[in-house]
Structure formats: structure tokens, C-alpha cells
Amino acid sequence: MTSYLQVENLTKSFGADVIVDDITFGIAEGEKIGLIAKNGTGKSTLLNILAGEDTPDSGTVIYRNDLRVGYLPQMPTFEGSRSVMDTCLWGDDRQSTAVRDYEHAMRSGDPDAMTAAIQAMDNAGAWDYEDRFKQILTMLKISDYDQPIAELSGGQVKRVALAKLLISEPQMLILDEPTNHLDIDMIEWLETYLKRSYITLLMVTHDRYFLDNICNRILEMDQQTIYSYDGNYNYYLEKRAERIEAQNAQVERARNLLRTELDWMRRQPQARAHKAQYRIDAFYDLKERARVVHDPGDVRLNINSTYIGNKIFTAHKVSKRFGEKVILNELEYTFARYEKLGIVGDNGVGKTTFIRLLLGQLQPDSGYFEVGETVRFGYYSQEGISFDPDKRVIDAVRDIAEEVYFDEKNHYSASQFLNMFLFTERDQQKLIAKLSGGEQRRLYLATVLMQKPNFLILDEPTNDLDIQTLGVLEDYLAKFKGCVIIVSHDRFFMDRTVDHTWVFLGDGVVKDFPGNYSEYRAWKEYHERLAAEEAKANEKPREKQTYSNRDTSNKLTFKEKRELEELTADIAALSAEKDELDTLFASGDTITDVATKAARYEQIKKLLDEKELRWLELSEKD
User: Fold this and answer.
1) 393 CB contacts (<8 Å, ≥6 apart)?
2) Contact (Cβ atoms closer than 8 angstroms) between residue 484 and residue 341
3) Sheet of 3-14: strands edge to edge?
4) CA nearest 469: which of 294, 296, 210?
5) Arithmetic mean of pLDDT, 278-296
6) What counts of helices (H) and strands (E) characterise the chain?
7) I want to staple 309 with a disulfide (CB 3.0 to 4.6 A). Which of 54, 274, 300, 374 is the partner?
8) What angle do CA 204, 210, 215 make, to 5 degrees?
């Protein structure tokens, strides 16, 4: 397989903190790799270095010559005054420049400029470029191409960044938390796109379904070492458990041998010590190996909730709208004790607004919420809270409480409580400004839980939390003796934690489904398929159109003629390549890189299907 990227002995430090230490790995063409590590261990730093946004202290990063690499940072930023279209077409490459000039010439009406722009479009092969980016924007639910970036939400900016990246057709993608701020439909679209594409991929994500369905290799950064697993996320979990078990067994053997060697060292007469120097040296080496602890490093949540009564809350015909946009329309619901509810829906349909209404942060237009007296809310908001960046971690927690008391058996000092969330004594002395985004979210989670809520409301809790923390949070919620409402785009997290699902469909419509998200999705797809089959069965057969009654005014445009010519050439080239592979597979000879060739064969078949269908559509107009 062709090597796309080789990283050798990469090291990066910030002051005394070693973030990336002597890391070596490679990425080959067609690989789809997920990078996994705990928060604060340098995932985003590593991606920034690979994307050229940062420089290492030592080591090398070598890409294949002329490789087109696209990078999506965790929080993409663009100039706020530019429109969506200008942002997507912004660049010095020939196609972006040609399309920009063509659009400008179209608006100017200058015939000389039009002639030059058409020639430039021909030379750059850019006739389908504009169509492609509009198609991708439409798939990503962005329809106002003239809207300034400054007016977009964080999720919309993320979608514009994704569109800009995908229309440039990179050969390799580097993605840092691509699913953050995307709703579930968008995540599933992106998952399908990346899965079907032959593009090479390196990404950091906490979305375990996303990892499992896309990746064919997992890289794990752990204790300043990188481990590689040739398989998807499920395979990684199995092999990681085996690795930790084997490492712990080695440490235990080293400790047993250390006891024997320690006894020998104590009995060793000093007069004869020089005769067994090699054994003394081996003893100290063994002592170091026995000290190693292979700890998964999980957050430990041994926290009890306070008592909650039978009366939780009742919604009495609650309605809310903003102008013409209806969020809730006479919602009536009685929430049960120990109920665990998941909420899904497109961005902007009112999920967070519902939570703010329940908490009293917003007032309904009509109706009201009746909340039980024993209910104590703990709200983990999407925006988080604004920690003072100049404060130490321990001081931020002590400002809330010096002691965290749950009951007679479970009470902790502020420092002990932070230890449960993987903040070591050294970490507790760090300034909050020095924490990674994920570490700040973990600190925020600690401050919510230390207030002993019996009704947890978690709005997008999975953003920026590492997979290990999410797994432990899921286990905690499963045992939580209280009520839970979760708004999340993380399908795996929802499936593990909720009993039933509210689907916000827009226009104030809320569907209550008795199951988790995956069960709802399967139910929805089944009924959509039935509806499609019924509609197809009820379709009246169309009369066969003869040449004489064809609409002869439906002629090909200039751009479509160009597209038809390109399709004809592409289909011929792809058919020839497919024939070569057919001959190779039928020859019985030994085939090198069989996996790569098989993947390319499937890609060719898919491309041929798409291009032949489009060719037929255009040829009917010719």
C-alpha cells in the first residue's frame, strides 16, 4: 500500500509538560484511522502538528509528494463578513479562482470578462465545481448561500467548514471531533459519506458508532506510547483489554522476581558486591519495571444522589414560540420517578429551549410546569460555565464547597473529590487556562455532580469528553437513583442511558417513542420503506414517450454539454480499468495489495453506476 504519511520520533512539550513524546507511526492510502486517548494527552496538539498548524520540538512529519490534505479543526473559524458561498470558494486553487471569476463575470455582464472566465473554467475543469459545493451544502442543510458567517450558529459554521473541506476533494482528511455540534441526521450523512468514500482518514472523535462503522484501524495514545490495532472500535476494545491484562501480568511477574532479588541484595556481603555487579544492575532495572502501573485511568464516580419523591414534574399545556417559529404547542406530560428520557431532533427545533423552560430560565407563552418539592436539578449545559482562567483547579472547586458530603459513608474533601475525576494533586494546582477543552468539561461535570442533584439534565454532555469518561458516566447514569433528561447527538451514549425518546419534529410537534434512539431509527426506516413501497405500487404507469411528442425545447445547456463530454470520457476510462481488474482477478496469479485493488474495484463499480445514470439523464435531453 502507498504510504501517505510517516511520523518519526515526534516530541512536543509546553513548558515542563510533555504532551507528545517520541511518537512514531505511519498512514497508508485508503486507511481510515481513529485516534483515541484521554483528555489532555495531546490528541488535538498532534493533529495540529500534522496539519502544519503547529511545530514539534523534535521529530519529522513526511507526507507523500503532492498529496492533497484537508484539515477540520475542532472549532473552525472564518472571517465573519464573508458569505457562505464566498467562504466555500475562498482559496488560491485554480478551480476556486475560476468559479469566483465566473460568478463575478456573470454579475458584471461584461462579454470580454465572460469569454475569459469561460476559458478559465475550461482550463481548470471547474464546470461541476459550483454544482458540487451547492449539492454538499444542501445535504448539510445550508440553503442560504449569501448569509454572512457571523450570523451562523456554531453547528452551522461546523457544517460550512465540512462543506468547504469536502468540495476540495482532498485525498486525506484530518478531522478533530467532526461530530461535535452536528445533529444526528448530519452525523449519519457524514458517516455514510466517509464510509463509502475511498478517502484516507485520520480523526479524533468520541462517537463510538462513528468509529466502529468507519474505521479500519485504531491508534491509541497511552502513557506516552502509541499502540496500533488493525480493526474497528469493537476490535480495539477487545485487544486493549488483552494488552492491559498482559502488561499487568508482566508487572506482577516482575514484582515476584523483585522480592527474590531484594532478598538476595539484603543478604549480599558488601565485600563481594563487585563480583555480582551485573546482578545488582539487573535488580535496579527490575525495580523500575515493577513500578509500572497499567491503569486504564478511568474516572471513578462513586456518588450517591439525594432522595427524590414520587412527584417529579407535570407539564400543563405548555406552549412557546419565537415569532412565527413554534417550539412547543400545548405540551402535556407527567414525568415519572426514576424516568430516563432522551431528546433528539434537528438543530434549532427547541430541545434546549424546552430545558430552559423546565428550569424556569425562560417563561412559556401559556401553560406552566408543576415541579415536585424534593426535586433538585443538576444542569450540565451545552455552553458550560465560565471558569476564571487564572484560578487553580482546586480553588474553583473549593469556591463551591470545601467538603462534599453525600452521606455518613461518602464524604470527600475537595481534593479527594477531584481525584475521582482523574485530577491528580499536580493537576489540581494547574491554572484552568492550561487545561484542555476536555479537561475543562470534566471539571464542569465534577462541579455539577458535587451539588448532589437527584434530577440530572445533560445538554450535549458528550462534546469534548473522552471515551473513557463517557463510558464511566454511562455506567453511573445506569445506576443513578434519580431522574435523567439527556439531549445528545451521540447515538451510542443515548442507547446506553435512556428508557424512551422524545423526537422534536419541529412546529411544536414532539413524538414520544418507547425505546432508545437506535430502536426509533429502525422503526422510522421500516415505516418509511413501507410508505415508499405503497407509493410506488399506487403510481400510474407513465405512457411511453415517442420522439414526436418529446419537448424539443429541453436542450442541453453549455455546462451540461461539457459535463456529457466529460462523463463519456470518464465512463470509458473506468470501464477499461474495471476490465483490467476483472482480467487480473480471473488470472489466478498472485496479486499484491489485493485489499487495495478490491476496494478500488468496488469504488469503480459505484462510480460507473453514478456516471452512467447521469449520462442517461443528459443524453435524453440532447
Assistant:
1) 418, 423, 427, 428, 429, 430, 432, 435, 443
2) yes
3) 17-28, 3-14, 58-63
4) 296
5) 53
6) 20, 20
7) 374
8) 70
CB 502 within 8 A of CB 342: yes
Backbone φ and ψ of 173, nearest 5°: -110, 135
Residue type present at position 250:
Q
- 535 burial via Cβ count (<10 Å: 0-12, 13-18, 19+): exposed
Q: Measure the CA–CA gap between 497 and 342, rounded to whole angstroms.
A: 8
Cβ-proximal residues to 497 (8 Å cutoff; 6+ apart), any chain = 340, 342, 474, 477, 478, 484, 486
Which residues, 6+ apart, have CB-to-CB distance to 309 below 8 Å?
A: 337, 372, 373, 374, 375
DSSP string covering 137-155:
HHHTT---TTSBGGGS-HH
List alpha helices for 317-362, DSSP H: 351-358
Q: What is the mean pLDDT of residues 355-371?
A: 95
For residue 236, how far is the Cα from the chain centroid?
Answer: 17
Backbone φ and ψ of 598, nearest 5°: -65, -40
pTM over 0.70: yes
Q: Hey, what amino acid is at 27? A: I
Cell of 404: 462534599
Q: Report pLDDT for 286.
A: 53
Q: CA-CA distances (angstroms) from residue 419 to 329, 380, 461, 474?
A: 45, 20, 20, 19
380: three-class secondary structure by DSSP: strand
For residue 413, report the phi and psi dihedrals to the nearest 5 degrees.
-75, 165
Label residue 275 by pLDDT band (50, 70, 90): very low
CA dist 6 to 2, 174, 494, Å? 11, 14, 37
CB burial readout 361-382, b (16+ within 10 A) else e = eeebeebebebbeebebbbbbe
- Between 68 and 254, the more confident residue is 68
Cα–Cα distance, 600 to 584 (Å, whole number): 13
Q: Which of 358, 343, 325, 314 has the alpha carbon at shortest distance from 512?
A: 343
Q: Could you say which DSSP state residue 270 is in?
A: G
61: cell is: 512529519
Place of cell 465540512: 162
pLDDT at res. 324: 87
SS3 291: helix
Cell reading at 245: 491484562
**Helix-helix angle 233-267:277-291, to 10 degrees:** 140
The DSSP letter of residue 508 is T
Considering just the CA atoms, what is the radius of gyration of the chain in Å? Answer: 30
DSSP string spanning 523-568?
A: HHHHHHHHHHHHHHHHPPPPPPPPGGGS-TT-PPPHHHHHHHHHHH
- pLDDT surpasses 80 at 588: no
pLDDT of 570 > 60? The answer is: yes
